[in-house]
């Protein structure tokens, strides 16, 4: 069979394109030996096509996911159909460096891959072609978007001043815990606390110092709790703490310990040393509480009872008759 000059030209173009196309092309035989390795693969792997020709792909790249890739290739051959894998499932097949100028900070090239069966004129499949697409730009923008969305989600749930849950997010947790109690009946308690005479602190020292006191209280609350508890800033100088798996006695102990820690703490702000106290109301959830808002009201009522009784103290509902703790 003779090849015309025209055919020879077309063939030359094809080879040229194969070498310069921005897609990785690898042809493997049925024993996974490399039959073709284009310019893209040479550039990114640092291995020339002569060096890899007829060599087993898995000997050349022992880090490849051998069992997975063999299974994929074998399915392509058996079913005579294409297979596709996305960077979202497997970020890359070959660990190539990232050469993109804009997304140059990505640790590696993200790749999509298609495996195609290569049929002979008689229809038999004796080779497959792996086509690797560099999708680093797409992957990086998607990952950046997901990160920004999750940061936005977090921000929308966080109180600016204290970095605790904001009121909306905290009330969401309160409703969730209420529903959990209705379903499983495990003990759960709520503490509402409020800084005593905070208006005086603000008026005497100014708003920024008041803010420092609020921040101080938030970090003290955070440090005193288990990470399964939910502290939140309910309003100005009022905070709420949901304590899952905690009965009224446990909650009273936690509230009392918090009260004492706060009463003994000092805040240094603007070259001032400030002491402050808090009043706390504690309410444990009972079967008689019809709604999460009633639970909140009970804790709030207890808080105001503590304020009424002289501040810097804990009041529980239902009342818990433990001996008063001395400072
Ligand atoms: N610095 C600062 N002050 C706040 C903030 N939110 C609310 N406040 C102030 O907190 C004060 C609350 O005053 P009151 O409700 O009278 O309460 P209180 O002075 O603590 O009195 P008791 O609760 O009865 O002990 C007001 O002066 C508010 O302006 C805030 O984010 N930062």
Automatic annotation (TrEMBL):
Q: Where is the GGDEF domain?
A: 186-319
Q: What class of enzyme is it?
A: transferase
The transmembrane residues are: none
Lineage top rank: taxon: Bacteria
Query: Which one Pfam family would you cite for this protein?
Result: GGDEF
Q: What is its EC number?
A: 2.7.7.65
Q: What reaction(s) does this enzyme catalyze? A: 2 GTP = 3',3'-c-di-GMP + 2 diphosphate
- Enumerate the SUPFAM superfamilies for this protein: Nucleotide cyclase (SSF55073), PYP-like sensor domain (PAS domain) (SSF55785)
List, alphabetically, the PANTHER family matched: DIGUANYLATE CYCLASE DGCM-RELATED, REGULATORY COMPONENTS OF SENSORY TRANSDUCTION SYSTEM
**Which protein are we looking at?**
diguanylate cyclase
């Amino acid at each position: 069979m003779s090849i015309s000059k025209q055919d020879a030209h077309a063939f030359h173009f094809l080879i040229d394109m194969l070498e310069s196309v921005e897609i990785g092309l690898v042809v493997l035989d049925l024993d996974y030996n490399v039959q073709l390795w284009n310019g893209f693969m040479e550039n990114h792997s640092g291995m020339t096509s002569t060096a890899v020709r007829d060599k087993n792909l898995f000997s050349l790249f022992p880090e490849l996911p051998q069992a997975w890739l063999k299974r994929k290739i074998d399915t392509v051959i058996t079913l005579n159909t294409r297979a596709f894998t996305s960077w979202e499932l497997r970020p890359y097949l070959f660990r190539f460096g990232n050469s993109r100028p804009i997304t140059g900070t990505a640790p590696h090239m993200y790749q999509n891959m298609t495996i195609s069966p290569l049929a002979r004129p008689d229809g038999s499949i004796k080779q497959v072609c792996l086509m690797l697409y560099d999708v680093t730009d797409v992957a990086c923008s998607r990952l950046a978007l997901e990160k920004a969305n999750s940061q936005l989600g977090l921000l929308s749930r966080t109180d600016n001043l204290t970095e605790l849950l904001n009121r909306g997010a905290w009330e969401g947790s309160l409703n969730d815990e209420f529903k959990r109690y209705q379903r499983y009946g495990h003990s759960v308690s709520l503490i509402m606390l409020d800084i005593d005479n905070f208006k005086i602190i603000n008026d005497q020292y100014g708003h920024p110092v008041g803010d420092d006191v609020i921040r101080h209280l938030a970090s003290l609350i955070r440090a005193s709790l288990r990470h399964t508890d939910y502290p939140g800033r309910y309003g100005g100088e009022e905070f709420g703490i949901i304590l899952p798996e905690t009965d009224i006695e446990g909650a009273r102990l936690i509230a009392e310990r918090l009260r004492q820690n706060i009463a003994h703490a000092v805040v240094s702000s603007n070259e001032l040393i400030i002491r402050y106290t808090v009043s706390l109301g504690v309410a444990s959830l009972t079967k008689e509480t019809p709604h999460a808002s009633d639970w909140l009201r009970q804790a709030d009522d207890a808080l105001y009872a503590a304020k009424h009784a002289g501040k810097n103290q804990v009041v529980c509902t239902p009342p818990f008759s433990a001996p008063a703790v001395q400072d």
